[in-house]
Amino acid sequence: MEDIVLIQAVERYLDGTMQPAEKAYFEELRKNTPEIDQMVVEHNMFLHQIDSYANTLNLKHSLNEIHTKLLSFGEINEGGEVSTKGKVVRMWNKYRKVTAIAACVGGAIALMISGLFAYLSPVNNNQIQQLKRDVEFVKRKQQDQGSKLNEVVSKIPKDAIVTGGGSGFLIDGKGYIITNAHVLEGSAYVNVINANGNEFKASIAYKDLRKDLAILKIEDADFKTIKTLPYSIKKSGADLGEEIFTLGYPRNDLTFNQGFLSTQTGFNGDSSSYQLQISANPGNSGGPVFNSKGEIIGILSTREKQAEGVAFAIKSKSIYKLVEQLKDTDRDTLFQHIKLPTASLVKGMNRKDQIKKMSDYIFLVQAFNKK
Amino acid sequence: MKSELNEQALLKGLAENDSKAIETIYKENFNTIQSFILNNNGTYDDARDIFQEAIITLYEKAISSSFVLTSKINTYVYSICRRLWLKRLHQMGRYTGKIENIEDTIAVEEDLDFHEKRNAEFAIMDRALNSLGEPCKSLLEGYYIKKMDMQELSKAFGYTNADNAKNQKYKCLMRLKKLFFTQYNIGE
After folding, report:
1. Does residue B113 belong to any structural domain of this protein?
2. Nearest residue of B to residue A80 by CA position?
3. Domain of B77?
4. For A144-166, how does the pLDDT look when each residue is reduced to its tens digit (9 = 90+)?
5. Shared domain check, B140 and B75
6. Interface ipTM
7. Which residues of A touch B104 (CB under 8 A)?
8. Does CATH place domain A129-370 in 2.40.10.120?
9. Which residue of A62, A83, A234 is the best one to mutate when testing the B interface, meaning the one whose CB has the most B CBs within 10 A?
10. Is B40 a member of any domain?
11. Considering its fold, how many domains does chain B have in total?
């Protein structure tokens, strides 16, 4: 019984409900009696333990409740295919009418605004420049390359009309190359050449001028599947101020350049691209932008005309988005096999070694038409 | 900046056991973790277990006074789950060698050590409470976990007045304390 009285006193002392006089007496007692002092410490710790036990138990309880709730709402899914499709379908059914109305209204407003803009604003085409190569330049270069690679006869047919060119890189060792769509503008045929001068025929597997992305597929008996690509494609975003470098073909030879990421958004606040501080030239279009770990963070695509050294790159996330979208929409096609590289094998290496490892997979893209 | 503030608010909510905040964190992170576990030899139950344990770890971090979260919530949760799952696979002898990394990770070893200690303490308290017997167990649960006041408790348990219930509660508490400290000091 005495113990209980004591514990009650300790508890009152700890939760601060003790009267000042009693408190003073108790503190004096505590000071003079080590046993009581020990008891206070011990009991305090014990109450703390019960408290955190209770909190954790309550949290576990909430977590299970939320889990069950989210399951019943279809926000999460156990069993069957793991995807968010169920949710989308449900949302769609629920909000179909609202969405339709909103889309109509939104569409009408968008048309009006874009009409107004088109009417009022000066053409801003000359503010940015796509970094596709000049046709003339490609032609000349093509001859150079021909003279340089004696054993290889150019695979571009004699009667071809070269329409443009740029850079591109493998996103899957089975021969899938990504580049800018504007590089291929107006052409039906493509050839790709790597830094060693190996030339391969390729086909245009996908092209979206609005996204400015295109996927090429190497279709050439000379091409051997590459098991693992040395670089990875970054799924998450890159950081402001991060050092970056590019490899591309503004000339006939693979050209290195470096700079840094200067803004998280592209031209006019475009959130699907980055602004880079780097000197880029026609021919760099479609080339990879690497961070120091050898992860691709973007695809170099345009530059600003009025400012020196300002270029824009489409964020690497878009590659994932594009591939996923293609897998979703074309269930039977070759896109199902694309697997993007997620681990960089050149992480700790110095720049020179990184480039050596990667240069074989970065291509000069030549677009042409037949007469 | 806005999203950072938002994350801070979520963590504050988690620390206060606010179900809205917990639900948001759950919704935004569970599916990633589930696919990670499923893709690496796990089951749906494993995913649920590991994910909830990670949220508890995050909670323990959120309530600590020296709390600073140096990464985004999703990076943190993923890093914890990844460590936990690797460990579990290893224990089951099902370690497959290579685990695909789907997101960035940060170092979480210290937090996990702390979490393990807390987990052990939780288990000791759980065992002690469950070996108490009735009505002690329910009485203490009512007071300390469901946070009922003495008036309600004496009614619910049929004590003639709150003082008697209070006395009984103290007796039970003493027994629980003894059980707890015997095991705690063995270092179980």
Report:
1. no
2. B44
3. 2-108
4. 444 444 334 567 776 777 778 89
5. no
6. 0.84
7. 236
8. yes
9. A62
10. yes
11. 2
